[in-house]
Design brief:
InterPro entries: DUF5694. It holds the Pfam family DUF5694. By secondary structure, the protein is α/β, with parallel strands linked by helices. The protein is built from 14 helices and five strands. The chain has a five-stranded parallel β-sheet, with helices on both faces. The longest helix has 26 residues. The termini are far apart.
Length: 315
C-alpha cells in the first residue's frame, strides 16, 4: 500500500513538473493597416473583438522606446511630423518639469475611472519628459475621449484598437518596441531600388503584386473583414516581400541594401519585444504592429527566443 501511495505521489509530481515545463509565455502578433480610409472606417472593430478575446496581460506597440537615443536622433528631423513635434515638446518639458515618482506610482495604482484631469495632465507631462510617445498619446486620448474611448472611428490602429484594448484590459502602460535608427537609410535604399527597377523589370513585378493584393482586399474591406484578410499568411507574405524587396528578379545594390535594413530593423524590434517579455510577469502578450513586419518578427522571435510561443492572429 505504501509503495502504491509513493508511486502515485511521484507520478503526480512528474506530471506537475512536466506541465510547468510545457507552459510557455506567449506572444500574439497582430498585423495592422495603420490608417484606413473613411469608406472602411470600421475595419478595426472585428480586430478589437479578437484582441479582447485573447485577453492579453501586456500590449506591445510600434512606437520608439524613450531611451532609444539612436532612433530619436533620426526622428527629431525624420519622416514623421508627429514624432518631430513630440521630440521637441519632450526637450522643452525636460528643462522645466521635475519628475515625482511617488505621485506617478500612486496615479498608476488608481483605476482609470478614478483618475482626475489633474492626474491625466501629470501623467501626460511625465510621459513627455521620459520621451515615452506611446503612453503620452494613450493618456492624451483618455483625456480627450474618456475611459469609453472615441465614439467615432479614428480610422487608425491607436484609437480604434490599441487604446480601446488597453482601457478594456485595464492596462495602464503600453510597451514600446519599435526601432527606427536606420529608417533614413532604408528609405534611401527604397528610392534607389525603385530607380534601378525601372529598366530591369523589378518594378513591374512589384506593381503586379501590389495590384493583386489590392484587388483581393476589396471584398473583405467592404464587409469589415480587412483585418482578417490582412492577417492571412498569404497577405502577410506579400507585404513582407514588398517591404523587404525580396520580390525582385534582378538583385541590385539598392534593393539589397533595402532588404538588409528591413531585416535588421525587424531583428532589433524582435529583441526589444523578446527581452521585455522574458523579464516580465506577463504570460499573454499581444504585439500590435504594421502587417509588413509580422513575418520578419515571427522569424526573429522564433530563432532567438525558442522558449516563447509565437502565434499569429491569422492562425
Amino acid at each position: 500500500m505504501r509503495m502504491l501511495f509513493t508511486f502515485i505521489i511521484i507520478l503526480f509530481s512528474s506530471t506537475s513538473i512536466g506541465n510547468a515545463q510545457e507552459a510557455k509565455k506567449e506572444i500574439l502578433i497582430v498585423g495592422t493597416m495603420h490608417t484606413v480610409p473613411n469608406i472602411i472606417k470600421n475595419s478595426y472593430k472585428p480586430m478589437l473583438r479578437r484582441a479582447k478575446k485573447y485577453n492579453p496581460t501586456a500590449i506591445y506597440v510600434e512606437s520608439p522606446r524613450g531611451n532609444d537615443t539612436l532612433s530619436w536622433e533620426y526622428l527629431k528631423e525624420g519622416w514623421s511630423k508627429n514624432y518631430k513635434a513630440f521630440y521637441y515638446l519632450s526637450d522643452s518639458i525636460q528643462t522645466v518639469f521635475t519628475p515625482n515618482p511617488e505621485k506617478y506610482n500612486s496615479i498608476l495604482d488608481k483605476s482609470f475611472s478614478s483618475m482626475t484631469t489633474d492626474d491625466l495632465d501629470f501623467m501626460i507631462t511625465t510621459f513627455a519628459y521620459n520621451r515615452d510617445n506611446a503612453n503620452h498619446e494613450f493618456y492624451t486620448y483618455i483625456k480627450k475621449h474618456g475611459i469609453e474611448g472615441s465614439k467615432k472611428p479614428t480610422q487608425h490602429e491607436d484609437g480604434d484598437l490599441t487604446f480601446k484594448l488597453a482601457l478594456h484590459q485595464n492596462t495602464k502602460l503600453l510597451m514600446s518596441m519599435d526601432d527606427q535608427r536606420t529608417n533614413k537609410e532604408y528609405h534611401n535604399a527604397w528610392s534607389k531600388c525603385s530607380k534601378e527597377g525601372q529598366s530591369n523589370g523589378n518594378n513591374a513585378i512589384n506593381n503586379k503584386l501590389n495590384k493583386k493584393a489590392y484587388n483581393s482586399a476589396i471584398l473583405p474591406a467592404l464587409f469589415r473583414g480587412l483585418g482578417k484578410h490582412t492577417n492571412k499568411l498569404k497577405s502577410l507574405e506579400q507585404l513582407h516581400k514588398s517591404s523587404s524587396f525580396t520580390y525582385v528578379a534582378v538583385k541590385t545594390e539598392g534593393c539589397t541594401e533595402g532588404e538588409r535594413y528591413w531585416n535588421e530593423r525587424n531583428m532589433r524590434m524582435a529583441k526589444n519585444i523578446g527581452e521585455q517579455v522574458m523579464t516580465s510577469d506577463s504570460d499573454r502578450n499581444i504585439v500590435i504592429v504594421g502587417a509588413s513586419h509580422v513575418i520578419g518578427l515571427k522569424k526573429e522571435l522564433q530563432a532567438n527566443y525558442p522558449e516563447l510561443k509565437i502565434v499569429l492572429a491569422g492562425d
